[in-house]
Every structure is written in structure tokens, then in C-alpha cells.
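Q: Entry one of two.
A:
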Amino acid sequence: MAKRKAKKETHKKDFSGSRVEPKPSLNKNPQPEPDRSGDQFRKGGWVGWACLAGVIMAAFLGNFHTLTDTDIFWHLKTGQIIWQTHQVPHQDLFSFTVAGKEWIDAQWLFQAMIYALYRVSGYAGMILLGAVLTGLIWALMLGPAFSPRKYFWVILLALVALITASVRMKLRPEIFSYFFMTAEILLINRYQRGKKSALYPLPLLLLLWVNSEGLWPIYFLILGAFLLEEIFFLPQLKFGRYVQRGFPVPAKSAAVGLLICLILSLPLALLNPNGFKGALFPWTLLKEVSLPGNLTGNWIDEFRSPFAMLTRFSLTAYVILIAGSALVFGLLLFKRIFYPAAFLLEAAFLGLSLSAVRNVAPFAILTGALLGRILKESPYETIFPWPKIRDRLFRLRPPAVGLVLATMILLSADMVTSRYYALIGQTYRFGIGALETDYPIRAAETLKAVCAASGEKVHLKIFADLFNAGYLIWAGYPEWKVYFDPRLEVYGEEMLKTQVQAITDWPSFKAEDRKYDFSAVVIVPGSTLKNLIVSLGRDPDWSLVHLDGMSVVFVKNQAALEPGIRAYGIDFEKGFASIPPRGLNGRWLAGEKLRVGATIMYLGHPGPALSELEQGLSLAPEDFGLNYYTGLALNSLQRYPEALPHLEKAARLEPEDIPNLNEQAWAYFSTGRTGEAIEIYRRILAKHPREITTCMNLALVYELSKSELAYPQWQTCGELTKSDPYAYEQFYPEIEQALSRLKR
């Protein structure tokens, strides 16, 4: 019996219930391998705590910036309505196009919360909420994965994840989803490690999530993935003999607990103001957005590929995160260590992030939350199984830690000075408030003044783009109603197509104007909407009353608005000076001056445009746009010698920019350097043979130079228009006149 008992004790069970045979040691006196974890500091654990505090502080500072999201102000107005009426709206209130249409407001709890903060502390409370939540997200990510003596790779992972996610770290409902996501992973991991009560808060977390933001189905995705993981390790399936499971709670008990939690959570999805429709809303929205040929994915930037939208800085961090996580999972599998839930979730969120830039942040946060714990639990010899590489990395610990600390300090400093936001391609600034360069604040003030000039309450139907509509709702509802706003799910795909046509095509705009009788137009300045701005400027039914770097405002010549038009109408012939944004300077003010100057150029007034552009150039002399438009304005004023230095500098900054090269060539011709002008035109046409403007410019240079090549060149331009009559129809009359002129 003793012999049988001794034999039985040589068989031990792994945590999944599978039996593992012990391997005999070839060393008669085996010594345990010393713990040389790459981050193991025998002294100086304070360094680890400093790194932890540094990452959390950087996360807080990274989201302590001025409001920037286009949706935030219609959310704020909805929160105000909820507080005033004590109910969640179920129908559209803000538009005159789909007024009364069903509206499923899935973010009502977020809206009520930010409005409550706004009532108490203004924008400061709202911004502080976003910063605190971001700091908490990284604290939840790092807390369970952190050890003051084994921390380096976890801290590095969290730092890369922070840089990757920064582009979406704004005060918007999805930041609640990021918080709930990390909290759910934390609670499930604690449950797997023996804390049974950790599952109790999960249903409450779902209830808050369902009423805060539409990404709540992630809750079931995470819970389902961990449930599948426990099922995978059930003793009956015998997968445990092939891979290890490192949790103390038996797989069967853990699976039962997670299954009960899942069953209890399912009906809670119905506890929202819209009941069953509210529960189905995320799936309906996902279906609409993912349809082939859907305009939302092409028109809205956040649905585009991260490789097209992220700056080089953010994209580098994103690629490093993908490569690093793939390497860790690959090495774990090589060592027969498998985390099914982490693997499934990582693959799912990576696929989502590759499809749309808006999904990069949840991928980064999930990677940090899952991979951090894995790195903490895995021996250094598992992550780096090659002894030579491991030893070299071990020796590089101190400078590597110093580099990470220095990076965090520099990032934090750049956040406080707002330089960091330029690295990730954003225009907001560190601090509290709403920037006049990010919202139509000045435009709304002008509209209010125009309406007040009539001496009575004026109701406006405003045609606005997505960037302006949300703030106009906040500033003017209920007297102001909008044609379209960022609540795309309310308007639908067909209405979005109509809006895009109206904002880019003048006849379509006129058709919508006849249908709805717009009172005002508020749109962003820029080349995308150039045709609409120019057409409104030429139309006698409309008057320009406001122009700044964020908004162009036209109002219709209606009797109720006539006093305001007389008081605030802009006449460039009498002089113009834009209203400067308050408290801004440097590159922000330079960008403002560029957009204003370019818009005035579109409207055909190079003199006032030049004044704005020169002010911008004094702040950013190396900016391509400012140099190009300054050269364009000087060319239009026939001050060609003055234009050339700006156009040549712009050509050095952007050598392939065709409009600038065309202006540069014309300035060369106008200053007697005809050969250089012809060479530039020919070089453009060699690369872009269908470039009609260049073709016509070259023909005109030949004609003015009395060259025999003029007529053949005009003929070439005529043949080009015939290849696509619709695209080139505006150029056809000028070409016909030139051919007739040369024939005579």
C-alpha cells in the first residue's frame, strides 16, 4: 500500500484537471534557476512606482485639453433637455428635415452627467471628467499587471498603448466604453484568480454601459470570450494536456460562474429608455455602417483606415503595438502557454482597428489590459527563450528604464505645452475651454446679433455641415433648427447622400433650398466647399455676414433679417479684417489666417486676402499653404516679382503640388522667364496629361509669345475636353474662343 501511495503522489494535476507526468532531471543535484526577470531590481523599487505614476499622469494630461469633438455640444443640449423635462427624448428635436422622426438616444446617461457638471463648473468639470476617466483607464490597465520590481515591459506596453489611443482620447461617450471595458477585464481576471465576489459588479456595469454608450455589446464579447476560455480548459475536453492554464479556480467552477453572470446580464440589456429597440440599436447601426458602398464609411473620417488617417507618430506606435503583441502571443504558443480569451479578443479588435481609425483606441486599450497581465505572469525565460538575447537585454535594463522615464517626462511636457497634440494631428490645446477655432462660436454670436437687430424673435432654418451643426444646436435651439447634424442614425443613408450632394453641388443646394427655404448657411471654409462658397457669394439672394477660420456665414435676404444684414453684412471693397480668436497665437492663429485668406481668394478679393495671409506668414513662414496662397494673391494683383519667392518656397516644400507649379510658371512667364515657365508646364503634362488647367496655361503662354505652337496646343486642350465633356464643360467656351481667335 505504501508503494502504491508513493506512486500516486508522483502524479500532479495542473489547474485544468489534466494529469501531467513529471520529467526526470538529468542533474542529480538540480539547482533552481535564479530569477533574472528582466525588470527585477533588487534595490530601488521606487523606480517602478515612478514609472507607474508617470504613465497614469501622462494619460490624465493627454486628455486634459480643450473640447474638440464635433458631437459634444448636441450631447450637452440633450442633457439640458433631459434635466429640464425629466425624460429622455424619443423623437428628433433639432432638425427641420426629419423633425418628429424616431430617435433612439443611447447616450442619455452620458449627456445628463456632462450637463450636470456643466451647470456646476462649466467646461472645467466636463474636461476634468474626461481626464480623470482616462487616468483611471490606465490605472485599471496597469494595477493588476504591475509589480514594483517587475514592471518594465508592462510600463512600456502601457506607454505605447497610450500614444496609439491618444487620437481618440476626447470627451465623448465612447470614453465610458473604454473605462467599462478595462473594468470588466479586471473583474473577470480577479474572479479567475479566486475572488468570487468580483463577478457581482458586472451586471451593474452592464446596466450603466447600456445607458451610456452604444458600444455596450463589447461587454458580452469579453464575457463570452472568457467563458469560452474556461470551457476550453474543462477536464473532459483534455486540452490541458497540451497547453498550460495558470488560474487557481478550477475551469469547471469558473465556467459555471461566468455562465450564470452571462445569463443574468442578458435581460439587463433591455433596461434602457427604449427597451427592446434600444437593445437592438447597436446591431442596427453596425449593419447600416458596414453595408457595401455605404457613404458613411467614405465621408466620415473616423470610419477610414488608420493607415490613411493617423499621423506618422501615431501610426508608428500602432504598428509597434501590433508587432509586439503578435510576438508575445507567438512566443507563448511556442512554449505551449495559451490564453484563448486574450487571443480571440486581440484578433477581433485588431481586425476592427484595421477597418476604421475609430477602433484603434479600443484595440490599444484592450491590448494593454490583456497583455499586461500576461507579461507579469510569464517568466522572463518564456517571453525571451534565447539566453544570449535575454542576457543582453538584462544588461540594458538601467538605460532602458531611464529612456522610458525620459519619454514620459517629455510627453507630459509636450502635452502641457500642446506640442504633443500636433504630433497626433489634432488642433486642440492643453487646458480648459472650447476653442473658437474648433467650434463656430464667433459665427453663432454674429447670427444672434443679426437676429437681434430685427427687434423680435427670429426662427432660423440653418443649412450647416457636420462640423458646425452640433454647436449651433447648443447655441440656438429651439429658435434655430438645422438641416443636418452628426446624428447620422436619425437621418439615414439616403439623407446623408442628399446632404453631401447639396453641400458639394450648387444645383442640388438650390433644389433643397426651394424645398425647405433656408434662412442661413453656416459651413467651414476650405477647398472642399469652395464651389458652394463661391456660388453663395455670387447669388443676389444671399449676403455674407461672417467669416473666420472656422465658419463662413451667409443669410438669406429676407425681410426679417434685413436690419441685421445692413449692420453686419461684409463688403470687401470697403475693407475687411477678420475677428481674431481669443487667446490664440502661433500655429493656431496662422492656420486661422490661412483659412480666412484662402476663402477671400475664392470670393475674388485678393487685396483683403493678402492682408490676412501676410499676417499668417509672419507666424509660420515655412507653411506651404500660406506661401502658396500669398503667391496666388500677389499673382492676381499682378505683383509677379513679389509672388515668385513665395511660390518657389512652396515648390520646395511640396514639389509635386500642381496648382502651385501652375502659379509659379505663370509668374515666371510674367517676369520674362518664358522658357522656365514652358518647362514647368511641360513637366506637369508629362506626368499628368489630363491636367486641363496646365494645358490651357501652356497654350496661352504660346499664344502670348506669338509661338506657332499655340494653335496645336489649344486643339490638344479641345480634344481633352471631348474625352470627358461633363468634367471639362466649364473650360469648353474659353477653348473655343481661343481657337476662333487664332483662326482669324
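Q: Entry two of two.
A:
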Amino acid sequence: MTADDTAFDVIIVGAGPVGLSAAIELGRRDIRCLVIERNDRVGYSPRAKTTNVRTREHLRRWGIADALRKASPISPDRPATVLFATRMNGHLLARFDNAMNGSRVRNNLYSEEAQWVPQYILEDVLRQCAQALPCVTIQFNAEFTSVDDDGDKVTVAIRDLTGGAERTVTAHYLIGTDGARSTVRDAIGATMTGQGAYSQNYSVIFRAPDLERRQVHEQALMYWMVNHDVPSLLGPMDESGLWFFMATKLAGDVDPATIDPAELIRRGTGLTDLAIEIVGTDPWVAHRLVADRYAKGRVFLAGDACHLHPPFGGFGMNMGIGDAVDLGWKMAARLTGWGGVNLLESYEQERRKVHIRTIAEAVANFESTSNQLVQPALEDPGPIGEATRREVAEIILATKVREFRTLGIVLGMRYEGSPIVVADGSAPPKDHFMLYLPSAHPGCLAPHLWLHDGSSLYDHFGDGFTLLMTEGKASDADAFQAAAKAQALPLTFLTLPDTRLRGRYGARFALIRPDQHVAWRGDLLPDDAATLIATVIGARTLPAPAPAEKSRAAETA
């Protein structure tokens, strides 16, 4: 094993969407990153298919939202609709339009609509973006084997899988974005806790050019098949006949190795003589797991390496990209000198709450699949069948709406109680799994608006912190800007001639973090601006609870 003379700021293990997003978030801030990936390319399997509104807002910030839209093999004219039917040649049961907020019609709640696109297309766009950054290096066929953290740096051992040679590379930090079987997680002794492997499922990628022509329903992004034979769902991966199919909650005694995937698809869809070419199969089990810790020393975990859940609601990959953004700006702040010594501790404190809340929603969605929706006589002709289908339609509309109306989860996440968020004494907005109420309550996502010139409010935020003034004289912020400059805080001062902003933000001023969450708001900037800044960058040491307070807490526990 030889030592490498090249040292990086950050080494990222895994070049999936989370690892690439971390590299972009860091690389745009001139942080030198090495991304290693044990495979010879980013990805083969579609896996995730929903890039939600929040992730696309990050892509917009990175300048690649339009690139992903253009790269998608799914036509922009395909409606963002989810249909429930007995089969692809059977009875229509229910529909959800504008699923996941995928409509291209502008909405003040967000700057980018969701996009249905195979994960490997997203990965390709992210990879091209990362590789275009001068300080990002991506190495394929490279396997992480160990890490030594001496408190000042990490020394990472890497094996070249093409020739077997090993080398060591030093860096300030290591990020494990290497998925559910994370070797980085093992290296820091973290363990996954919760409920694992509680359902067996079977996914298939297949080519059937005639399926679209032969099915009797309108075009949609996803079709749920509710029948006794094979409760399942399927949807297009392109416009030329590539599809995914998922059979959910297989019986425990079913051996996936014995399944004929083409026959499974024919039975589920009702198209018994459909010509099918199997591209790939993927037996998988559902989990509800969270790591007992997300970091140790200079080593951090993100994405599936620290949280796993059923893929219903499209949260997993998107939540992992959110991890990369949160960790990325904070790590860059530490490396460039303006982030406080406690800033990185807030990563787990903020993200764990988001993970637990989101995972609970994914599990709730998974508890109501096509398996639970099937009723006797569902496909029967005549009045009995019609009555049964109306009953099931009512159940679908009542129970599945939360899976396709997700803004409450996607945009309603907040970092309330974070040590780097300053409370203002106001009541937080209602927390709801579907309903999103834009609010500048500290810790919440900064409320969005489309401005009169057609631009997004978010387009005017800076890469560092942004001080938004909704009304008043620009000179009112002079002292705060001087304090920010004295503490080397990257700050954009923003004032816009839009009278709606005062009501939208509920205050004259809002201090917005690099990840577009509100760190502080108020009608008057504090006289002691240095203390506020020290708090939001993690440079302020908070006092420990008094002994009496500790005692009361122990009695309450």
C-alpha cells in the first residue's frame, strides 16, 4: 500500500445521487472532493423515479434543473397523473391529478415542480455537473476499505478494483453515502435500529412496446393494479416501451427465484398475451431503520447509509439529497473558516427529526397498498361489482391521497429547536403530512414567491446567508452587514420592491441560511449582531443546564 501525495478536503464514498449532491454542494464552494465508487459507472437500475419539488429546487440552485428536464426520457406532455384500476384492461377505480405536484403550472409554494424521471438519468445529470467542477474528482472501480481518524484528519484506504492495488488518501472529512450496506457505517461502529425486512416485494424492469397501445386507460405516470391475482403497480420509464413493475407484499413462502416475471406482469395487468422482454429483476424487502448515530469524529453518514424506509411517497432518495445539502454547506463553512466549532454537530440534530417524521409517513403509505384494497367481487360485472368498485374507490381517495399530496412532508420539514436556529417566540405553523403552510417561523423553509418580473425569490438568495429586508431603508441593515463582514460570514443583503413579502415573512427582516431555511427573523436587527451570527454559524457555546434542571428532567423521564 502506498501513500498518495494528494490530499483532499473531503472524501465521499458512493457516487449515487446523495454522494454526487454532496460533491456538488461542496465543490461549488471550492472544497476539494474525491468521490469513490466501487462500480464502473453511477447506476444501472431506475430505483427512485420521483425527483420531488424540494430536490428540484436544489437542482435549480445548482443550475441544472433545466438540464434534468431536458434529459428525461418521459415526455413533458405526459400528465402527472396516478390511476388506480383493477387491471390495465380492466375497470378504472380512482385517479389523482398533479401527483407529487408534478404539474408545470407555476405555484407560489415552490420554485420547481416535481419530475418523474428514472434515477439513472438524474445520476447522469448530477455526475456531469460534479465533474465540471474543477475541485471534484470522481474515481470509479474504487472501493473504500478502512479509515483512520486521528482527530486532525482522516486517512482513507482505497482499493483499485481493476488491478487490486491499494493506496491511502488523506482528507479533513469522510462522508459515507454508500447505501443500505454501508461499509463506512460499519467502520464507525454505527448500527441500524428499528424494524427490518417486514415485507417481501418484487420489482421488474421490462420492455413491452405494445403495452401503451393495448391498455384501456389514459396516459399516466403510475398505474396501481388492484386485483386478487397480483396486487401491483407499474409505470413508464420512457416513451418507447420501457416499464417498471412492482408486485407488493408477496406471501412469505414465495421464493423470488421461482418467479416467472413475465407471467407475473401478464397476470397483474390482465394482458395475458403481452410480448415482454425482461430487462432486470430486483427482489427487495421493506425496512424501517435509522442509524444510532450519524457521525463519529470526522466521519459522517448520509442517505441510505443512515436511514431506510419503504419507497412509498418517493421520499428516500430526495431525503438523502437533503442530507447532502445540510451536511455540505456546514462542512464547507468549517473548511473555509467561517463555520463555528459546533456547526457540524447540528447535522444529526436537524436531520434525524426530519428522517423520523418522513419515515413514519412512508410506513403509513406502505400500510395501504393494492393488497389491502382488494375486495371480493371487485371485478364482477353487474350491480354487485359496481357497488364494490365504488366502495374501493372511496377507500382509495381517502387513504392514498396522502401519498400523492406530499408538500406537508416535503416542504413542511423544519429545524425548530436546532442549536443554530434562533427562536422568536412565535407559534410554529401547523404540522401536517399533506398541508404545507408557508411560514418564516425560525427553522422553517423560507417561504417562496414568484416575483413580478417572473423570477423566483429563491433566485435572489446568495450561496451563503441572505439577509432579506421586506420593508424599510437599506441603511437599517448597515450595522448587521458590518458585523457579518467582521466575522467573515458570506452574506447577501436582499431588498425587493414587492409588498407581499412583509406578509409572507411576518417580519421586516429574515436571516436565511445557505440551505434556504430561516435561521432568525425580527422587526429589528439586534444591537448585538455578533452574538446572533455566532449562534447561527455554530460558534456560540450554549450554557449547560443547571443541576436542579437536570434533576427535574431526570424525575420526569
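A: Comment on entry two: The chain has 17 helices and 25 strands. Residues 345-366 form the longest helix (22 residues).
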